[in-house]
């Protein structure tokens, strides 16, 4: 194999996908409740996005950001309006979006310190790895960038006690995704916002996983009425086309001018076509309301079906970003589910994470609940025997 072994891969080769369904090289079908890790929010090969990319393929693929790109501006307009913000910078990934946010916050405030949270995840580049509050991700790379400080998540009093004039920004996830599908409390998130205002620091919300309708709002911070200065997003933004974005307030404009920052590929015509079509589909009140309804139904059915299992501690999350916290290892559950035809993923060692496409059918949700209940029942039975 000519690849660096940076991934533990499941023994599965997906050769085609359509909606929530994917098929492997043996012809076996699966319900995909991973969606490429919250990427394929409209399912696999959504016709509207496919058509938009095909149309752009027949015009021009890439021109560089040296020239006007009207479709990029159209995508930016939809994105900034949905976020209640003003300007967009397009890049190619979540980590790059967070890099842009970190650079902009430091340049705008003239300060260096950035507060992030334990168990957070912000990416794998040097700055975003340093921002990430998880030692296992930082191990072996030597000294990190020194200007990040990690605070306990959902701990109101520790944030309250920050009195520091050097803080450029506080960067936070509304729901910690990789950290275990842990929703922030309203009190905590409001306190973070309040502290930013008090310190003259910027509020950066990392919506790389929670954005683009995943939780039933365009962005998850909209559940809490927060007013971020910068929002970053990526995963679901292009329905699988690699693209990221940083979105910010108009008053930051002067700090990101020609020559301040850039990306060769960022927002190229193909990526912008994917973004525009994706957002036009997801950012409507009808679509988002259905995500809320489906998320509520999924959560309630899981909770009902899993009551009485001593190994299940909690079903949590928002919209169609749910986690089943278990007292055992979650990974064996993922393997058993795959054998039964359901793809899921872990979030940390003890959480089964469920991220179906946002247009998943109710019937598919029911099938998933049945299979999840079945594997948990089997695991409890085999643990009792042992
Ligand atoms: C996935 C993720 C990232 C990193 O995104 P990449 O596209 O892998 O660089 C950053 N922040 C959060 C919250 C994520 O879930």
UniProtKB/TrEMBL annotation:
Keyword Translocase: no
Biological processes per GO annotation: L-arginine biosynthetic process
Residues binding N(2)-acetyl-L-ornithine, per UniProt: 124, 263
Location of N6-(pyridoxal phosphate)lysine modifications: 235
UniProt keyword Amino-acid biosynthesis, yes or no: yes
One GO cellular component, as annotated: cytoplasm
Gene Ontology molecular function terms on file: identical protein binding; N2-acetyl-L-ornithine:2-oxoglutarate 5-aminotransferase activity; pyridoxal phosphate binding
EC number assigned by the record: 2.6.1.11
Bound cofactor: record note: Binds 1 pyridoxal phosphate per subunit.
Gene3D superfamilies (UniProt xref): Aspartate Aminotransferase, domain 1 (3.90.1150.10), Type I PLP-dependent aspartate aminotransferase-like (Major domain) (3.40.640.10)
Pathway(s) the chain acts in: Amino-acid biosynthesis; L-arginine biosynthesis; N(2)-acetyl-L-ornithine from L-glutamate: step 4/4
Reactions performed catalytically: N(2)-acetyl-L-ornithine + 2-oxoglutarate = N-acetyl-L-glutamate 5-semialdehyde + L-glutamate
Major location (coarse): cytoplasm
Cofactor needs: pyridoxal 5'-phosphate
Positions contributing to pyridoxal 5'-phosphate binding: 94-95, 121, 206-209, 264
Pfam family of the protein (one): Aminotran_3
Alphabetized InterPro entries for the sequence: AcOrn/SuccOrn_fam, Aminotrans_3, Aminotrans_3_PPA_site, Class-III_PLP-dep_AT, PyrdxlP-dep_Trfase, PyrdxlP-dep_Trfase_major, PyrdxlP-dep_Trfase_small
Keywords assigned: Amino-acid biosynthesis, Aminotransferase, Arginine biosynthesis, Cytoplasm, Pyridoxal phosphate, Transferase
Subcellular localization: Cytoplasm
Enzyme class: transferase
Note: May also have succinyldiaminopimelate aminotransferase activity, thus carrying out the corresponding step in lysine biosynthesis.
Family recorded in the similarity comment: Belongs to the class-III pyridoxal-phosphate-dependent aminotransferase family. ArgD subfamily.
Subunit structure: Homodimer.
Name under which the protein is recorded: Acetylornithine aminotransferase
Name of encoding gene: argD
